[in-house]
Each structure stands twice: as C-alpha cells, then as structure tokens.
C-alpha cells in the first residue's frame, strides 16, 4: 500500500471486504498510512542527523 496504493488489485480489496466493514477498512488504511509516515520520517531523520546506521 505504501509504494503503489493506487495499484491494489481487486482480489485483495474483495478479500479485505470479506473480513472488515467500511469503518474498519478506513481505520486500517489510516493505520497503514501512519506507519508509512513514521517509517519515512524515521529514515529521513537518520540521514539528516547522521545516525551511525546511515553511514
């Protein structure tokens, strides 16, 4: 979802809808989006702040 969110196939959407209602799907999307944002911000911070892992 974080790389190509517009390319999620119809089979996956159908499978998700068989397990989650619309509100739950919305929450799932928001949680995934927040995790993606946190990961990207964390990666940028390592690069900007010179973390030993980024060298």
Describe this protein's structure.
This protein is mainly α and 55 residues long. It has helices spanning 10-19, 22-49. It is elongated and about 45 Å long.
Number of helices: 2
**Overall outline:** elongated
Query: From the alpha-carbon coordinates, what is the Rg to the nearest angstrom?
Result: 16 Å
- Biggest sheet features: none
As residue ranges, the low-confidence spans are: none
Domain count, please report it: 1
Could you spell the SSE succession in H and E letters? Answer: HH
Bin the strand percentage.
under 5%
How far apart are the first and last residues' alpha carbons, in Å?
28 Å
Mean model confidence by pLDDT: 85
Number of strand segments: 0
Helix content: 55-70%
List the helices and strands and how they pair.
Elements: H1 10-19, H2 22-49
List keywords for this structure.
55 residues
The gist of it:
The protein is mainly α. The chain is built from two helices and no strands.
